[in-house]
Amino acid sequence: MASQYAGWEIKGEKFFAMGSGPMRAAAGREELFDHIGLREKAVVCVGILETSKLPSDDICLDIAAKCGIAPDRLTLLVARTASPAGTVQIVARSVETALHKLHVLGFDLTRIRRGMGVAPIPPLAHDDYVAIGWTNDAILYGGGVQLEVTGDDESLEQIGPQVPSNASSDYGRPFAEIFARYDNDFYRIDPLLFSPAKVTLKNCDTGQVFHYGKLALDILAESFAKK
């Protein structure tokens, strides 16, 4: 959550990127860090920008300043969504999306000891809009996550059904359709949608295992078939 989550909106003149990577913990600009802690003071920073345009020198200098480091100690990796690197780094977030969903639901993330996730890599899209749809669908309808947690079973049984993507009222259609329905505004989409299709919670203290959600390979196939 303090690194992989793309929670830093980076804006400049005719420039926008979603920032992820360990530089976020150095900048610590997001409200999220007030909840989870993990801010850090760094001497070097690495970050990822999801954007189709290279950042200007001014943008890079601003990022370095907000991270509290010298400009020559900042390394930025830039990839558009419709690229092999961009596609893989988004789809690799199945565990992160599960943690973010749990955080939104008020779950204590310090109870999580380890996580593992899988999701299918979609075809390489011809433009970023299509890629946004495919990469989201890979997790929403094809992603599976297992989390090993501590504590009581009752709280897991209570929160578990709310964690998978099918708990959302927006669930059930390819993401591109949902995105278009809200005029391509992520913030109007039900935030409970952004989570894996299947979530397994294994209680390390009691040995109980709870399964929630299901894969929706039919919706995934419909999505990937669209160009």
Find the count of extended strands (DSSP E, 2+ residues): 8
Given the structure, what is the number of helices? 9
CATH architect. name of the largest domain: 2-Layer Sandwich
Placed side by side, the strands forming the largest sheet appear as 1-2-3-4
Briefly, what CATH class of the largest domain? Alpha Beta
Q: What is the global morphology?
A: globular
Helical percentage: 25-40%
The rounded Rg comes to 18 Å
* CATH fold title of the largest domain: Methenyltetrahydromethanopterin Cyclohydrolase, Chain A, domain 2
Task: Return residue spans where pLDDT drops below 50 for at least 5 consecutive residues.
Answer: none
For the largest beta-sheet, the strand count, sense and barrel status come to:
4 strands, mixed
- Tell me the fraction of residues in β-strands, as a range: 15-25%
CATH H-level superfamily title of the largest domain: Methenyltetrahydromethanopterin Cyclohydrolase, Chain A, domain 2
Counting helices, strands and paired strands, the structural category is alpha/beta
Number of domains: 2
